[in-house]
Amino acid sequence: MDDLFAHPVFGDSWEGLVIETILSSIPDRVEHGYYRTSNGAEIDLVLQKGTSRIGIECKAATSPSVARGFWSAKEDLDLDEAFIVAPVDSAYPYGEGATVCSLAECLVRLESFHNPMF
To answer: Cα–Cα distance between 70 and 20 in angstroms, integer?
Structure first.
């Protein structure tokens, strides 16, 4: 496992796993994409239905941190909620309106986030 976690492509693989898993579990009527600006604001996955908007950032670290670009993107998009999905055991708040959680916990929260969303 240590060799896997230390491999240079682990972060990209984690991001792909998270995004593919989430997209395969949400209804077709939920719009999705990513957000990136030339100023460095970025969020890996944005889900939207109507006026509800959720941002998801993928981090392969067990103690994840996000850069200023995450917070800028969160503000630009006026997100209702933001999740930082990481290989963690339990969810915890991370700044205003953001939560670090596992992929499994994120899927549960997406199902229950404003029931009309899904």
So the answer is: 20
